[in-house]
Please model this.
Amino acid sequence: MPSPKPRAQLTAVVGAQWGDEGKGKITDYFADECDYVVRFQGGNNAGHTVVVDGEVYKLHHIPSGVLYSGPISIIGNGVVINPKGLIEEIKNLRERGITPNLKISTRAHTIMPYHIVMDECLTSHQGDLAAGSTKRGIAPVYADKMYRHGIRIGDLLEPAIFEEKLIRSFEFNKNIIQKVFGRQFDLTMDDIYTDYLSYGEELKSFITDTALELYYAYKEGKNFLFEAAQGMSLDIDHGMYPHTTSSSTVAGQMSAGTGVGLNGDRQIIGVAKAYVSRVGISPFPTELHDERAEELREKGQEYGTTTGRPRRIGCLDLVQLRQAVRVNGLTDIALTKLDVLAGFSSIAVCTSYKIDGEIIKEMPASLDKMRRAKPTYTELDGWEEMSKDRVKYFCENGGSSLPAGMRKYIKFIEEEIECRISILSLGPDRNETILR
Ligand code: GDP
Ligand code: IMO
Ligand code: MG
Model:
């Protein structure tokens, strides 16, 4: 089945919940018809899965358009890169017969080995306020960027500048790890210097000023597909702070994270699971602790793509989705894992929270309120289990062929959050998708 053509010159795919909604799948679905597929934030804390004819690909830095030979994959300046991890990712793809047509922004910051040590220290220091990080060094690398002693991937191609910056960054992190956290520090600057210069050498042919390339391409009318990492509630400003990641995960970041002023017409697709999963620590008002959670976790294989951790499972939360629609300016929603939510006689959907006796329909900023939020549920009819053949039938016959319970579920959500659900996903494979 060929990819559908995106409606706009600029299409963004963003996470509408807590990450792992199926952004990789939806990005891949649209990618073939796009000139550029662009990551604009996050790093290898992301794990995006694409399934094509039963073959599973897991991507961490590289945009999910890479499986097609047409589009150019861009890692924008807002992304943080673990160079060793990225080299490995490129190698793994090559071994599977895929040659990434990849360009990396010279301005993207690099994750250093001491950032990973620092991530460990921060997680234990923050205790109950930690987010349960993926331990990929994400908070420390973004913090060093903001302190302004970070190292950019382009610096690895300029040994003297790299050395000048590394001394400051290394000493800063070493001192904190040893003197603030009292931890042993075994890394040496010489080893890091040598290793990172060799990573720079290996990545050299990909590193360029991607902001300029995208600017000229945009003026020529080329179309772009932006792939976010993480999701609404993990956004550093609008998410459930401090249980978030350390970047802006919302669509507004696509300009800052690529360096292109993007004024053209846009389609902004929020990807949401038909239920909710969460890997990591935070209040989770609709979390399930009964056999429904177990069933959905096993059936939906809800284990972290990056860390393998079991994902916490809950009912669909429309307070969360309402915020995603509002903050991202969503034009569309892609609702995924509808096949997994099958087989229940009824399904509970959270339409608001009750906090101190008050009904709250919009996501509170207060952590205290979030800790006390009790979900208010509406019970809707479920739909029957579906075999792979049945999924194939639905995908061939479109939205109107779907079970009545599922159609009502979709309509109810659309009315509550005032956004059109125009993409339905009924399985992990590229083909198991319906456009409405
Ligand atoms: P991402 O981080 O948002 O790209 O999502 P992940 O790849 O981390 O997690 C989503 C998981 O669900 C992956 O294993 C996908 O292959 C799988 N998936 C995506 N859409 C569907 C769907 O509609 N049905 C089923 N059963 N699996 C899906
Ligand atoms: P994708 O792109 C799900 C979560 C972590 C933790 C918090 C902070 O695959 O959807 P970090 O390592 O960023 O400091 O962790 O964010 N987290 C994710 N959860 N999917 C992701 O990415 C995530 N990236 C980070 O579990 O709670
Ligand atoms: Mg993921």
About this structure: The pocket of 6-O-phosphoryl inosine monophosphate (ligand 2) is lined by residues 15, 18-20, 45-48, 131-134, 136, 138-139, 229-231, 234, 245-246, 279-280, 305 (CB under 6 Å).
